[in-house]
Amino acid sequence: MHALPWWSWLLWLLAAPPGAAPSVPSPVAPGPVPPAARSLPPAPQVTPPAPGGLGFQFVRIRYRSARRTWRGYGTWAYDWPTAEANLVRAIERTTALHLDGEPIVLDLTDPRIFDYPILYLCEPGYWITDEEEVAALRDYLTRGGFLIIDDFHDYGDGQVGPEWENFYDNLRQVFPDRELIELTPDHPIWHIYYDIDPVRAVSTKRESGEVPWLDEDDDTYYGLFDDDGRLMVVVCYNQDIGDGWEWPERNLYEASTVSFQMAINFILYALTH
Question: Helices H, strands E: what count in the chain?
Fold first, then answer.
């Protein structure tokens, strides 16, 4: 008997139609490491082709990191490149969204960020920025761009800590006069394609055992809005949806399912608002 290909998990996890959650079996033992996760390719050459302007292309932001690194790269690279490779396959198989190329990596100071409507930045607790990056990100967001911030945690129980403080200080440099607002379950971003309850959503931080002290309701989601009420930034705190993309075969009590569904909702919302 031949083992199913690793990407078949994506089809099962996202097989439920919009508005329905797939049934979830008991947790399974981790399967074989996907080929893309076994070894990390050389540092990306940030020379993507000019976008065709016909569809979505995933863009991860690279930044200078404090303290720790991921496989020789900065913390910007956590879960890369497997996470976005799996997400792109999930988008292709579960939506009608046209894809315009493989995932790429860009710096905030690269003017090509303005060619892409959505950016992804992970581990902001170790994100080091400067005036040039701050100005570029402010310009990008005020001109209609959308940023997904993911994969950081602290103590839970309503307490913030050093990772939140570092992230928040950076965001305040970009928009010193704007405050984050919690994205409650009635916000349309949770229902644009899949129906998601952010209160009941499972955090990969908790279910993977990475941060066992977090409670079930410690993952929290925030938005940053412009003067017209347009959502510019979505923040996943005490959560790591990128980890769910990277390891779909682990599922972890629906964590991977929700991780893919959240990402698809975020992307479709950003592209239509």
Answer: 8, 11
Q: Residue 166 domain-assigned?
A: yes
Q: Does the N-terminal peptide bond of residue 49 adopt cis geometry, omega within 30 degrees of 0?
A: no
Q: 155: domain range?
A: 57-272
pLDDT digits (tens, 9 = 90+) for 94-147: 999 999 999 999 999 999 999 999 999 999 999 999 999 999 999 999 999 999
- Residue 26 is assigned to a structural domain of this protein: no
CATH, residue 206: 3.40.50.12140
Number of domains in the chain: 1
pTM: 0.78
3-state secondary structure of 82: helix
The CA distance from 119 to 102, in Å, is 14
Rounded to an integer, what distance in angstroms lies between the CA atom of residue 256 and that of residue 203?
9
CB 41 within 8 A of CB 84: no
CA 14 from centroid of its chain's CA atoms: 17
Q: Decide if 79 is inside a domain.
A: yes
Contact assessment for residue 97 and residue 142, using Cβ atoms and an 8 Å cutoff: no
Enumerate long-range contacts of 220-223, CB under 8 Å, 24 or more apart: 220/182, 221/182, 221/183, 222/180, 222/181, 222/182, 222/183, 223/180, 223/181, 223/182, 223/183, 223/187, 223/189
